[in-house]
TrEMBL record:
This is Trans-1,2-dihydrobenzene-1,2-diol dehydrogenase. GO terms for molecular function: D-xylose 1-dehydrogenase (NADP+) activity; nucleotide binding; trans-1,2-dihydrobenzene-1,2-diol dehydrogenase activity. Belongs to the Gfo/Idh/MocA family. Residues 3-121 form the Gfo/Idh/MocA-like oxidoreductase N-terminal domain. Coiled coil: none annotated. It comes from the Eukaryota. Keywords: Oxidoreductase. The gene is LOC114246311. InterPro entries: Gfo/Idh/MocA-like_OxRdtase_N (IPR000683), Gfo/Idh/MocA_domain (IPR050984), GFO_IDH_MocA-like_dom (IPR055170), NAD(P)-bd_dom_sf (IPR036291). The keyword Nuclease does not apply. Pfam families: GFO_IDH_MocA (PF01408), GFO_IDH_MocA_C3 (PF22725). Residues 134-246 form the GFO/IDH/MocA-like oxidoreductase domain. It catalyses: D-xylose + NADP(+) = D-xylono-1,5-lactone + NADPH + H(+); (1R,2R)-1,2-dihydrobenzene-1,2-diol + NADP(+) = catechol + NADPH + H(+).
Length: 331
């Protein structure tokens, strides 16, 4: 089966996605059209990546009958509206995270996809890295004993102009960085926390520019997470169990799993034809392949990143943003 892709959005992630897709078998994946609001940028990406059809705006992409699945990589604020448009036009969708800005939006998209029997996946690309499979195997076979604490940090230094823009783009420490930490914690504990306590700082425009959270789980388990836009942090996760600790570097896109001095595994990412904008973006190919694997088997939800989990994560990010004072106007 050849999956025919449409691309909605022409930002840096769209370029990285197309470059990663190009490393996969052409008999399984083909990009047939790309769409965006800035027609010059659409044409530029279409030319670079040899895509035959370029649309201005998203309506024509949604109505293009040759497309099976659409990758939605527009601004966070538009994820809901564009994903909804594609689902209404019977397209499968892979949507960049966060799928919706709020629980309400996310739940509505999940309900629509389920009602129409369409494949929908929130682009939590971390989940599809082989290191995550190996980590899960190590934990489930008792390698760490009982896991009692997870500590995650994610900080990237961005300037004031970008920080102020975050409001208009639907960004912020929780939605841009926090979801990555939450998905890892949830990947390991596999259930929602019983309590969440967050604090942090808002910028002058009301965007969360930092967040620190403590999460309490059943059976004596806890987690802490911190995101920061004013300073670069260690950007790693520590998973602490009764038999030891695993430190996961670049936890959102890891290519190394270091279990002990004698037990370390490294995976090589595919080489792209063009330079990637973001760290380890070649690993987007794992997520693209997951779409093919599921659709080929007639599965409409990825077992590695279920829609119920997307709903749970959106509830948690709502809670966090509300505690920080970001959400009053949105809920």
């Amino acid at each position: 089966m050849q999956l025919k892709w449409g691309i909605a959005g022409v930002g840096m992630i769209a370029h990285d996605f197309l470059t990663a897709l190009d490393t996969l078998p052409p008999e399984q994946h083909r990009v047939v059209a790309i769409a965006g609001k800035d027609v010059d940028r659409v044409q530029r990406l279409a030319t670079l990546h040899k895509i035959n059809t370029a649309y201005e705006g998203y309506e024509q992409l949604a109505r293009d009958a040759s497309i099976d699945i659409v990758f939605v990589s527009v601004l966070n604020l538009q994820h809901y509206e564009i994903t909804k448009l594609m689902l209404e036009n019977d397209k499968h969708v892979l949507c960049e995270k966060p799928m919706g800005m709020t629980y309400k939006q996310t739940k509505s998209l999940v309900d629509l996809a389920r009602e129409k029997g369409l494949f929908l996946l929130e682009g939590m690309w971390s989940r599809f890295f082989p290191a995550y499979d190996a980590l899960e195997k190590h934990i489930t076979t008792g390698g760490l004993g009982e896991v009692y604490h997870i500590n995650v940090q994610f900080g990237v230094q961005i300037n004031d102009i970008e920080r102020n823009l975050m409001k208009d783009l639907g960004g912020g420490a929780v939605l841009d960085l926090g979801v990555y930490m939450l998905q890892l914690i949830n990947f390991i504990y596999k259930e929602p926390p019983v309590d969440v306590v967050c604090t942090g700082h808002l910028s002058k425009t009301g965007v969360d520019e930092s967040v620190s959270c403590a999460l309490k789980y059943k059976d004596g388990r806890t987690a802490t997470m911190a995101a920061q836009t004013r300073a670069t942090m260690t950007n790693k996760a520590e998973i602490i169990g009764t038999k030891g600790t695993i430190s996961l570097e670049y936890f959102w896109c890891p290519t190394v799993l270091h279990i002990s001095a004698a037990n370390s595994t490294e995976w090589t990412l595919p080489k792209g034809k063009y330079k990637f904008h973001f760290h380890n973006s070649a690993g987007l190919s794992y997520q693209i392949q997951e779409c093919w694997d599921c659709i080929n088997k007639g599965i409409v939800e990825s077992p590695k990143m279920s829609l119920d989990e997307s709903i749970l994560l959106s509830k948690l990010t709502d809670t966090m943003r509300a505690q920080l004072g970001v959400l009053e106007s949105e809920l």
